[in-house]
Design a protein that fits this description.
This protein has one domain: Sulfite Oxidase, Chain A, domain 2 (Alpha-Beta Complex). It has 5 helices and 11 strands. It has a 5-stranded mixed β-sheet. Strand 3 and strand 4 form a beta hairpin. The radius of gyration is 15 Å and the shape is globular.
């Protein structure tokens, strides 16, 4: 019963976020574009895409968590908007997200991951911006320590660092 109530709350929050962001027009980026969302979206701001600069991502509600990852010897603190909020800002709807990194690495993320988990598009690591050589400027990070199922290769592989694009299908 508790899981059902939790799932209902998550769905209500997600729908609220989608509603809030879908009725607002997406501003055009003023700075360097660091994330482009394409595919099945309703809030394009440059051609058919939703483009974000860092300030646009900073304006979204922020989440911080500290997590143990396979890439660092000690727990690391990450801060950024929830993936579901970034997708909602673009009016994204679909079943799959193809995340692309600056080096053209691609990984498929089920759209449902953005709803089920507090996955973030991290823009800060230990309260500092991430340079490209430190997996930045953006890094999709799952809250690995919250559920044993997240501490697997499946979710580690979905955690795209040097994130530059999301294609919603």
């Amino acid at each position: 019963m508790q899981n059902s109530l939790r799932n209902i709350r998550i769905l209500a929050c997600t729908l609220g976020a989608f509603w809030t962001f879908s009725v607002m027009a997406l501003d055009k980026p003023e700075g360097r574009v660091i994330l482009t969302i394409s595919g099945t979206i309703t809030q394009a701001n440059v051609g058919a895409n939703a483009e974000f600069d860092m300030k646009m991502l900073e304006k979204l509600p922020q989440k911080t968590f500290t997590v143990q990852t396979p890439w660092y010897a000690t727990p690391v603190s990450f801060t950024g908007p929830l993936l579901r909020d970034v997708l909602a800002a673009a009016g994204a709807k679909g079943n799959k997200i193809v995340a692309t990194a600056l080096n053209d690495y691609k990984t498929d993320i089920p759209f449902d991951d953005a709803v089920k988990f507090d996955t973030i598009v991290a823009r800060l690591m230990n309260d500092k911006p991430m340079p490209v050589r430190e997996k930045g400027p953006l890094f999709i990070v799952y809250p690995f320590d919250t559920k044993p199922e997240l501490r697997t290769e499946i979710y580690y592989n979905r955690s795209a660092w040097q994130l530059s694009g999301l294609k919603v299908q």
